[in-house]
Amino acid sequence: MIKYLAIAAVAAGSFLFVSPQPAEAYKCFARSPQASGWGYHDYSLGYARRRALSECAVRTPRGYTCYITSCHR
To answer: pTM of the full predicted structure?
Structure first.
């Protein structure tokens, strides 16, 4: 029984090293002349970019354009 508990403890401990951490997430920022926005996602750079542009677009007046200024992990 102790052997199985030890195996389970090692497996659970190793999962912590494999699971994504917040520092490994994609973060993107977008700006327009009047507003800004940011997006975040653990796995998808595309989702983080789209989210940043959407957040910026909601705050930007009609006729202006938002651009991605940076994306990093």
So the answer is: 0.68
